[in-house]
Each structure stands twice: as C-alpha cells, then as structure tokens.
Specification:
This protein has 12 helices and 7 strands. The chain is of the alpha/beta class and about 280 residues long. A hairpin with a 2-residue loop joins strand 5 and strand 6. Helix 5 runs parallel beside helix 7 and helix 9 packs parallel to helix 11. It is flat and about 65 Å long.
C-alpha cells in the first residue's frame, strides 16, 4: 500500500540533518543525534520524521517533522496526537513542526495550535508552522539546505527558470543529491510550462512519470482531487437545498475522506434541514 503523503521525508532530512534541525528550530546550536522510528503501538506514522536532537541549553529533545503536501483541517488534532505519542514513547520533550508544501484552498486558514475545551478541561498543543511558499529560495543556496533543493521552484522567488537551473546544477554536482532531480522536475512543473521544464532538465518528461517520487506524489494528488471534488459536490447540494452554508461547516468538511463525504452526501439528500445535517455530521 502506497504511503498517503510520503515523499521520502526521511531520505530528504537525512541528507543534512544538522542543517535541517537548525532551520526548523531557528537555533544554530542545535545538532541532530539520530533519526528515530515514528511507528507507535496502534498506528504507523510514516509521513512523520522524528529526529532526536541536542543543544547545550536544552539537552536531548525530539523534533517531530510533519511534511504535508497540502494542509487540511484535521492537521491540528493530528499534530497534538502524534506529538504526545512521540513524547510518551521516547520520554523526551517534543518540538512539533508542520511543513506545508503547497498552499491550501482559500477557504482554509492555517493555524499553529490545537485547542479544545470540554467540561471545563482544556487541551492545548502548539506547533511551529513552515509554509514553503513563504520561504525565500535564496536561503536554500546560502545556508545551504540540500533537503529543500527539490522544492526550490515553489519557494518564494524560486519559480524562475534560472533559479531552477541553479538548483539542478547543485543536484547534479553531488552523487548523493542527483537522485532528487525528478522531484525537482515535479515541482518545477507547477510553475513552468512542461516544454521549458524538459529543456531545463534535458530529458523527456516520461522519465519523471516513471519515477517513484512522481508516482507517490501523483497518487496523493489524485486522492486530494477526488476529496476536493466530493467536498464541492456536497456543498453544492447543501446550498441548493438550504441556501448559504456557514463557513465553519465548509471548513469542517475539508478534512473528511472521500468515503466519509460520500456518506454525508446521502445524509444531505435525506435530511429536512441544515441543522439536522450538522447534527448528523457532528456525531
């Protein structure tokens, strides 16, 4: 079974773990000691990368790296859950980081904490959010940050052909990095025309489509497309039946799976009011 959102996160971070942990924590004194397993007793978190890090002022601690192709509404709860699981397993303080690769739909607001209050009790989990489209491409070359080289085309200022060519030259100059060329091409295809990407790479795009990097991300992209299509169809049915839909209902639907959205479609057709639908949806 293919990993839902895994684009080789562990492989990327292992290229230069010290540079990575210093970048995500914004603390130059932090060093990476070990990349740990993220499989827990009940669930396997293959899209997370846990790094055991150390700094003189804080001692040993965990950095939980969650790389997401696109942010979804259920991410705050997931960050809370997996940060707690990691801390319980390894008995170390945990610094959770969410790295969003591509911007989410405009209806979705990215938040950097999970908060819930129930019967007078509060649950709070803060985490750092890094949106790659807000990161200046130049820092990848300046620091350097080889783990971010494949993402250069979608970074701020990285969508120019000359910048993509520069990233490609760095990848091809290092035997450890040239395996990432197809991933660079994939993200370049988001911002440049396919013929131009072909010209820069100097190989046929069929090479990209045959790459395991491409196949993993393409499968994730197809799943996201199906999910967003089902969500739009459900909202359209609700609007046709009950008029304007509250924004908070649309946001809650963002994190639902295709199967869940299809089940909710049946409810949307059967109920007599929006309130009745929301009560079913909230169960």
């Amino acid at each position: 079974m293919a990993k839902a959102a895994d684009i080789g996160s562990k492989r990327l971070i292992s290229l230069a773990p010290d540079a990575w942990v210093q970048w995500v924590t914004q603390r130059p004194e932090v060093v990476a000691k070990e990349i740990l397993g993220s499989e827990f007793q009940w669930i396997s978190r293959e899209t997370d990368v846990l790094v055991k890090a150390y700094s003189a002022s804080h001692g040993d601690f965990l950095i939980l790296n969650e790389l997401q192709l696109r942010y979804t509404a259920n991410m705050p709860l997931r960050m809370r859950a997996y940060a707690a699981l990691a801390q319980e397993r390894y008995r170390l303080p945990t610094y959770p980081v969410l790295i969003n690769i591509l911007p989410p739909p405009s209806t979705l607001t990215i938040v950097n904490s999970y908060e819930q209050e129930f019967l007078g009790l509060r649950a709070i989990q803060d985490y750092r959010v890094i949106n790659l489209w807000e990161i200046d491409a130049e820092i990848v070359f300046g620091q350097p940050l080889p783990s971010l080289l494949p993402f250069v085309p979608i970074l701020r200022g990285g969508g120019e052909a000359s910048v993509v060519q520069r990233a490609l030259q760095v990848l091809r100059a290092d035997a450890q990095l040239n395996q990432l060329e197809s991933l660079l091409a994939f993200f370049a295809s988001f911002v440049l025309d396919t013929p131009l990407v072909q010209q820069i790479m100097r190989w046929d795009m069929a090479v990209l489509r045959e790459s395991p990097w491409y196949q993993e991300i393409e499968q994730r992209g197809i799943q996201l497309g199906l999910q967003q299509g089902a969500r739009r169809q459900l909202i359209r049915v609700l609007q046709q039946r009950f008029g304007e839909i509250p924004h908070e209902v649309e946001v809650k639907l963002e994190g639902e799976s295709v199967e869940q959205l299809e089940n909710l479609m049946d409810s949307a057709i059967a109920v007599n009011s929006l309130e009745e639908f929301v009560s079913i949806f909230s169960k």
